[in-house]
C-alpha cells in the first residue's frame, strides 16, 4: 500500500471515529439516564475541528478516566491536572457540600420545586441593586408560583462588611425567608482555591483575572448548593428587574424547546440568565472548577454549548429581564467612564 493510500485510509478511520463518538453523545443525551455522571463522559469528541483547545484537554481527560476506571464520582476532576487545585479544597468535593453551614437566612424546603433562581451578589462601590432585583422577582410572582420556586442569594464577598450588607437587604423580606421561598447563603474561604498566581489569558490585567476566576468559583458554590432543589436552575446577577408573568414565560419557553437539544437556555439577552436542567448542575459546576482561571464564565458557558453539540442559542423573546444601573462589581470597568451612583 502506498503512503498516500495509507494516509487516506487513516483519515477515513479518524472521521469515522468522530462520527461514532457524536452518535454516542447524542444517544447519551437523549436515551440514557442523564443523572448518571458516567454517561456524560461519552462526550470525548476532542477531534472535532471547532472544539476549543481548552475543551480538548477536558474531554480527553474525562474520557481517559472513564475508560481506565479512575473516574471519581466525588469530583470528576484530577487535581494534579489543574494548577492551584488540591484535593482538600471544598470546590473539589462538591457532592459533600455542607448546605446547613452554608445557609445563613431562611430554610431549605423539603419538596422539590419547579425553579431555583440563584443570584450571586457582590459589593459595588457606592451602589447596590440587590433589593430592587429581589423585590422585582417577588412582586412579579403569585402565591402559587412562589410555592414552586426558590430564590437563593449567595453573598460571595470575602469582606464581612459586604456580607452583612447582603444579610441586611435579604432580611427585609421576612415573610419569604420564613416560607423558604428566599434563602441567603455564604461560603467558607476554604471552598476556594488560593486565587493567586492565576493564569493570564486574553491579555487581561491581574485584577480582572482575579475577578473572573473568583466569579467562576462563586457560581460553582451556588450551583452545588442548589442541586436537587428544583427541576430547573436559573443563574442570574444581582442587578436585574423583571416583568409580571415571568415564571409563566419561562415555563412556556421550556415547553417550546422540550424537543430541542440543549444544555442551557438563554432567559436573558445579556450574559446572565442561563437556565439549566437540575441533572446537569453538578456536571457544569465541575466543568467550571476545571477551567476557573482559563476564561470568564460567559465564555465557558459558550464553550459548554459546543461541548454538548448545542449549535445555537435559544433566547426568550420578548426579553423579560432588564439590566439595572452601570456600576460594575469589577472596579476596573468603572474607571475611565462617568458612573452615576
From TrEMBL:
GO MF: acetylglucosaminyltransferase activity
* UniProt protein name: MGAT4 conserved region domain-containing protein
This protein's superkingdom?
Answer: Eukaryota
Q: Which InterPro entries match?
A: Glyco_transf_54 (IPR006759), MGAT4 (IPR057279)
Residues of the MGAT4 conserved region domain? 101-334
GO terms (BP aspect):
protein N-linked glycosylation
One Pfam match, given by its short name, reads MGAT4_cons
Amino acid at each position: 500500500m502506498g503512503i498516500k493510500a495509507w494516509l487516506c485510509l487513516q483519515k477515513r478511520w479518524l472521521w469515522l471515529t468522530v462520527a461514532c463518538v457524536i452518535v454516542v453523545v447524542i444517544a447519551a443525551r437523549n436515551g440514557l439516564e442523564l443523572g448518571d455522571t458516567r454517561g456524560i463522559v461519552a462526550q470525548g469528541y476532542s477531534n472535532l475541528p471547532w472544539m476549543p483547545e481548552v475543551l480538548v484537554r477536558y474531554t480527553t481527560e474525562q474520557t481517559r478516566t472513564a475508560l481506565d476506571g479512575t473516574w471519581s464520582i466525588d469530583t470528576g476532576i484530577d487535581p494534579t491536572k489543574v494548577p492551584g487545585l488540591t484535593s482538600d479544597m471544598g470546590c473539589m468535593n462538591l457532592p459533600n457540600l455542607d448546605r446547613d453551614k452554608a445557609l445563613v437566612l431562611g430554610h431549605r424546603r423539603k419538596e422539590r420545586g419547579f425553579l431555583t433562581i440563584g443570584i450571586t451578589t457582590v459589593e459595588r462601590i457606592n451602589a447596590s441593586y440587590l433589593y430592587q432585583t429581589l423585590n422585582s422577582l417577588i412582586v412579579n410572582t403569585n402565591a402559587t408560583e412562589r410555592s414552586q420556586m426558590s430564590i437563593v442569594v449567595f453573598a460571595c464577598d470575602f469582606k464581612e462588611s459586604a456580607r452583612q450588607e447582603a444579610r441586611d437587604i435579604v432580611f427585609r423580606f421576612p415573610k419569604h425567608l420564613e416560607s423558604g421561598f428566599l434563602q441567603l447563603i455564604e461560603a467558607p474561604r476554604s471552598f476556594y482555591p488560593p486565587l493567586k498566581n492565576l493564569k493570564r489569558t486574553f491579555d487581561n490585567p491581574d485584577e480582572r483575572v482575579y475577578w473572573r476566576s473568583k466569579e467562576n468559583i462563586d457560581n460553582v458554590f451556588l450551583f452545588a448548593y442548589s442541586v436537587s432543589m428544583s427541576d430547573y436552575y436559573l443563574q442570574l446577577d444581582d442587578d436585574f428587574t423583571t416583568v409580571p408573568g415571568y415564571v409563566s414565560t419561562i415555563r412556556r419557553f421550556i415547553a417550546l424547546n422540550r424537543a430541542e437539544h440543549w444544555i442551557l437556555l438563554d432567559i436573558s439577552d445579556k450574559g446572565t440568565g442561563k437556565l439549566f436542567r437540575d441533572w446537569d448542575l453538578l456536571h457544569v459546576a465541575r466543568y467550571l472548577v476545571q477551567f476557573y482561571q482559563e476564561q470568564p464564565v460567559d465564555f465557558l458557558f459558550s464553550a459548554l454549548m459546543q461541548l454538548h453539540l448545542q449549535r445555537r442559542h435559544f433566547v426568550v423573546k420578548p426579553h423579560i429581564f432588564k439590566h439595572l444601573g452601570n456600576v460594575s462589581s469589577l472596579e476596573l470597568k468603572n474607571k475611565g467612564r462617568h458612573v452615576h451612583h
